[in-house]
Amino acid sequence: MFKSAASVERLTNRLARLPGIGRKSATRLAFHILKLSKEEAFELADAIREVKERVGFCSVCGNISENDPCYICTDPKRQRDVICVVEETVDAAAMDKVEGFNGLFHILGGRLSPLDGIGPDDLKIKELLNRITDEVSEVIIATNPNVEGEATAIYLSKLLKPLGVKVTRIARGLPVGSDLEYADAVTLTRAMEGRREF
Amino acid sequence: MFKSAASVERLTNRLARLPGIGRKSATRLAFHILKLSKEEAFELADAIREVKERVGFCSVCGNISENDPCYICTDPKRQRDVICVVEETVDAAAMDKVEGFNGLFHILGGRLSPLDGIGPDDLKIKELLNRITDEVSEVIIATNPNVEGEATAIYLSKLLKPLGVKVTRIARGLPVGSDLEYADAVTLTRAMEGRREF
């Protein structure tokens, strides 16, 4: 059997653990890194170290941030009475593109998933409830529109409603530009349920 | 616009430079690395540094190796009269799976590609010619069966033949398990040209 240098083997193993990178891609990446200049490779290594050394979570909203509280929570231009709840930071980035939304975020850090052993205590739910003061008029739940995201949304709404805050869920329906013909029945049902008068 | 922490942005940029990793995958990987334990992330960073610090090239065959000469060139069990010439180390790894082949390798470090500005001086061709002594009876050229690989093979054969060594090229033809129906005309032509008597 052809053996690679031990350190190449080690790097390949590490890379293959990353999501979406199989054994073949890991080998290709390892060889690519071998061909990089020393500076470029070290810059990549340092960027990985740095991200773990500098980045933490905002103690208010759970967003990843180098400062605490994060730049969103401290932004004076944002509406402070609306909180949009999402699963992950990437989801907050997506929701922040929504025109007309200029509120705050709360990042749960995942979704309820009993099969994976993720319960309410593993998410930043207590932190969310602590944020509900008289200042907050609406909580928009924007967890993903799949089984676990929906379950998380229902669970949260049951905790939030008794606090006297308006709780809303983003609409499920047909994506813009799609074809009715290719839409699945569940999406069509949701689209029908969510219909609005002209 | 939603801003990520600056160090996350830097890591994403570095990752997006790797081959086969676009902006989206890079973001996903960066967030995955953020979620790793500090130890795991540092191990990945160190593996990248290590590979650049430890691994060099074998001065005999051009193989990547932590030792010089590499373990293949110093293996007493290998046939020393046959040299298989390949473009890259990964190709040597592939060829080394061939049953019945137990010779040495020579890794060119690429292929002739005038459009990319890669000429004979950029490949380890001089090193190959220096290896052709009376001890060597055959050089098998196993560059890739594409335009550039073929051109490199022809170029090498012209340099090697005058040295009185047998020069062969691996066969091009239909891959085992494939369908004639879906084979391209060039492959079929090569398969026809390379036909052998039963």
Provide keyphrases for this structure.
homodimer; 198 residues; alpha/beta; Helicase, Ruva Protein, domain 3; Dna Topoisomerase Vi A Subunit, Chain: A, domain 2; four-stranded parallel β-sheet; two-stranded antiparallel sheet; 7 helices
**Percent range of helical residues of chain A:** 25-40%
Quote the distance from N terminus to C terminus of chain A: 70 Å
CATH architecture of the largest domain in chain A: 3-Layer(aba) Sandwich
Counting H and I runs of at least 4 residues, what is the number of helices of chain A? 7
Uncertain stretches of chain A: none
Gross morphology of chain A is globular
Name the strands of the widest sheet of chain A in spatial order: 4-3-5-6
> What's the number of domains of chain A?
2
Supply the helix-strand structural class of chain A: alpha/beta
Overall strand count of chain A: 6
Question: What fraction strand of chain A?
Answer: 5-15%
CATH topology of the largest domain in chain A: Dna Topoisomerase Vi A Subunit, Chain: A, domain 2
Average pLDDT of chain A: 90
Q: Tell me the major beta sheet of chain A.
A: 4 strands, parallel
Listing every helix as H and every strand as E from the N terminus to the C terminus, the arrangement of chain A reads: HHHEEEHEHEHEH
Per CATH, the class of the largest domain in chain A reads Alpha Beta
Oligomer: homodimer
